[in-house]
Amino acid sequence: MLQIRKITLVLSVAAFLCSINLEAQTFGRGQLALSGGGSYGLDMNEPGLRGGLVYYLSSNMRACADFTYWPGDDEYTYYEVNANFNYIFFDRQGFLLYGIVTTGIHYWEQKWEMDELDPITRTSSDLGMGAGVGIEYNYERFSVFGEQKIIINGHDQPKVNFGIRYYPR
Hints:
Helix content is 11%, strand content 63%. It is mainly β.
């Protein structure tokens, strides 16, 4: 229940920020952004933390790199490192819609303690590929974003990403 409250709070803050009438900024080739936020794995039902970099190849194409970590509990660890390509197909007054193609390494580790002296550990890492869609609202040097992705190889993990991007120049 606490997780649903956190997601509702983040979405409420994002909606409020989107309603503020600030001058939107258009970005072009060479623009760099830093991002941070959260992720929610829909199959594992766990919140995660994420960070990344965004580089504009042109005004409607971006290359991105991100790292997501799901803290889990003492029994499992899961993280992924992804390279993403975004194609922005709608950009009006700071409001963006974009498609996502992604590939990355997904690492998973699970521990079972059937015997306290000899716990069993199983690990797996796979190359995953996937696709998704994103929405973003830019204002001045910041933006809020939300993404839905599904990884179709590796650990087949649908997820929702959300966060803030900072454009330093």
